[in-house]
Amino acid sequence: MHWRAPLLAASVLVSGIPAVYGWGAAGHEIVATIAQIHLHSTVLPKICTILNFTSNNPDEPQCHLAPIATWADRIRYKMRWSAGLHYIGAVGDHPQDKCLYPGERGWAGHPGGNVLGGIRNTTGILKDWVTQGEGTYNETANEALKFLVHFLGDMHMPLHLTGRDRGGNSVKVTFDGRQTNLHSAWDSLLVAKAVRTVPAKYNHPLPNRQIEHNLRGAIYDSFVRKVMWEGVLGKWHGDVEQWLACPARSGPVIGYMLPHWAQVAFGGRSGRVARLVQQVFGHAYVDIGAPEMMDDEILCPYHWSQPIHALNCKLVWPKEIDEPPYSHAGSDEELNPRVPLLELDTPKYAGVVEKGWVLEELMAQAGIRLAGVLNWLFMDPVEGEPSGPALTINL
Ligand SMILES: *[C@@H]1O[C@H](CO)[C@@H](O)[C@H](O)[C@H]1NC(C)=O
Ligand SMILES: *[C@@H]1O[C@H](CO)[C@@H](O)[C@H](O)[C@H]1NC(C)=O
Ligand SMILES: *[C@@H]1O[C@H](CO)[C@@H](O)[C@H](O)[C@H]1NC(C)=O
Q1: Which of 120, 247, 267, 330 has the fewest CB atoms within 10 Å of its CB?
Q2: Residue 132: CB within 6 Å of ligand 2?
């Protein structure tokens, strides 16, 4: 277990090393910190067990989700099978002119071999840990937790939900005059700017122990304070419950109906049954139906991700990319040095993201959904508090 000092995250951010995948380190750690603020008090000890965190020294920091939030990116080339689990791409999806999620031809890759399946799968492994061996360290559960923290973050990055131009990685643009690509602008540069431009009043502690107790002296602490104070406890206060909600599975949905056992099995633990479902219902069916099968009444990554994907057509993918004079700057092969690159650090682009609190809301949603899933998995029933099959948060 490598407990990364908060200062390391800070230096990565300041030097602006462009990350090529996922939210950059800061983004993932912000999501994890927001999640930690919302954990039920009976949940953290179990997380500490899974992370093999032992400390008898009360002065040492408690175990925290932020230092494990980027593990999945670090091992991505060692565990190659996991690379496809960071994103999902609908075949034929082409923002801004055509936003398909999924399209008629379903998803790229294997059914379930995407970020929605990754969330479903790791949650299932952790559920097994709870029913089987809770209380002891288990390497499978350890990895599943580290993946889950990361994948829920990735799912809230809109460019992880489109297959066009490798999620924007091959769309060259500039940001504040520096050449970069659309994906990195969202991963790192917009996040770094948001962290840099937080009002100075948030450098000071908030009168809320639960928030302050879970900050780690990282460069983004003041950003987390702003998101919590003005967002989660402010303008989005009435929305938070809705963020956690999943649609009831009522009535047949044409094209997506599956017997209950198959839904459970596909979302559950048996790859053998998933293959059987595929044989029985046909390949095309499963390709299209897979995302719906990812969802149930409690955990519904497909449902949650739909409005995030829609942001690609609303504001993430700049229209200008497909119009002259920028329209040839998109792909590596076609890059012509004389074609100008679109600047994104403008009032019309970055300004709209900032004014709309777009990044702030995505990260708050990711953190709160992560906390909801972890609370649902690990929370002990407490007398006098509602229990049952629901995601709960703690504030
Ligand atoms: C768990 O932590 C203990 C104490 O730090 C260490 O000795 C042990 O090797 C760790 N186990 C694993 C599997 O990492
Ligand atoms: C998770 O995925 C792995 C690899 O595909 C599979 O072997 C395992 O059974 C899955 N577990 C659950 C709980 O979904
Ligand atoms: C860890 O958990 C996995 C999945 O639940 C299980 O197959 C495995 O046997 C467990 N390992 C140990 C050492 O308990």
Answers
A1: 247
A2: no
CA gap 74, 241 in Å, rounded: 33
Pick from 232, 23, 194, 243: which is nearest to 115 by CA? Answer: 23
Burial readout 233-252 (b: 16 or more C-beta within 10 A, e: otherwise): eeebeeebeebbebeebeee
* Count of residues making up the chain: 395
Query: What is the C-alpha to C-alpha distance for residues 371 and 39, in angstroms, rounded to an integer?
Result: 6
pLDDT at residue 234 above 80? yes
139-155 and 358-378 helices, crossing angle to 10°: 150
C-alpha closest to that of 350 among 230, 208, 187, 190: 190
Looking at domain 2-394, what is its CATH homologous superfamily?
Answer: P1 Nuclease (1.10.575.10)
Confidence of residue 17 (pLDDT cuts 50, 70, 90): very low
State the pTM of this model. 0.84
Convert the pLDDT of each residue in 328-351 to its tens digit.
654 555 555 667 899 999 999 999
**283: which 2 tokens?**
């390949």
Give the whole-number percent of the chain exceeding pLDDT 70: 76
The answer to whether residue 178 is catalytic is no
Q: For the chain, what percent of residues have pLDDT higher than 90? A: 63
Ligand 3 contact via 135 beta carbon (within 6 Å): no
Residue 172 — φ and ψ, nearest 5°?
Answer: -80, 135
Query: 40, 64, 160, 166: which one is catalytic?
Result: 160
In the chain, DSSP finds a helix count (H) and a strand count (E) of: 17, 3
Q: How confident is the model at residue 292 (pLDDT cuts 50, 70, 90)?
A: low
pLDDT at 166 over 90: yes
Q: Is 86 a catalytic residue?
A: yes
Q: How far apart are CA 327 and CA 342, in angstroms?
A: 10
Q: Is the CB of 140 under 6 A from ligand 3?
A: yes
**In sequence order, what are the beta bridge partners of 103?**
106
Nearest to 241 by CA among 360, 393, 31: 393
Rounded distance, CA 340 to CA 68, Å?
39
Q: What pLDDT score does 275 carry?
A: 44
Per-residue pLDDT at 170: 93
Per-residue pLDDT band for 60 (boundaries 50, 70, 90) equals: low
- Return d(Cα 218, Cα 220) in angstroms, integer: 5
